[in-house]
Amino acid sequence: MTPGVSPETLDGISREKLEKLAAELKSERFAFAPSRIIQIPKASGGTRPLSIASPMDKIVQEAMRLVLEAIYEPLFIDSSHGFRPNRSCHTALKNVSASFQPVQWVIEGDLAKFFDTISHQKLMKLLEDKIVDRRFTKLI
């Protein structure tokens, strides 16, 4: 229910607005609105930016997530836990505990600014190899 740039929230979205959104998507007139950016504190100190999308953008993003998840989830290896349904750091730790007995140490790592370095052209090529609907890939 957090508002984006405008004060509008998902609470009370009308059927008419959803129908208008569907029509915009079908006609390829839909465009994502600018997001509201806020700074949130990091556990290690400092802050990181968080983008808050408009309600209509959130609906489209969730629909896109469902499509991408249906296509790619069956392809992921079982030991992958990040950002997957019914998986978390807790399931990863249980997996490590069950697979690598006895374990005394687990080292966690994080690649700083990793997602900032991914080539969008290569990522889009990978998506377009699997997804033939260009209306969908244009939204991405």
Q: Could you tell me the number of beta strands? A: 2
Q: What is the oligomer described by this structure? A: single chain
The value of Rg in angstroms is: 19 Å
Q: Which consecutive residue ranges, at least 5 long each, have pLDDT under 50?
A: none
**Strand residue content:** 5-15%
The profile of the biggest β sheet is:
2 strands, antiparallel
Give the count of helical stretches.
Answer: 5
| Strands ordered across the widest β-sheet | 1-2
Mean pLDDT over the residues: 89
Shape descriptor: globular
Structural class, please? mainly alpha
Distance between the termini: 23 Å
Q: What is the string of helix and strand elements?
A: HEEHHHH
SSE topology:
Elements: H1 15-26, E1 36-41, E2 47-52, H2 55-72, H3 89-99, H4 120-130, H5 134-139
Task: Explain what the structure shows.
With 140 residues, the protein is mainly α. Helix content is 41%, strand content 9%. It is built from five helices and two strands. It has helices at 15-26, 55-72, 89-99, 120-130, 134-139, and strands at residues 36-41, 47-52. The chain has a two-stranded antiparallel ribbon. A hairpin with a 5-residue loop joins strand 1 and strand 2. The radius of gyration is 19 Å and the shape is globular. The model has no long low-confidence stretch (mean pLDDT 89).
Q: Any key phrases for this structure?
A:
two-stranded antiparallel sheet; single chain; 140 residues; mainly alpha
Provide a quick synopsis of the model.
41% of the residues lie in helices and 9% in strands.
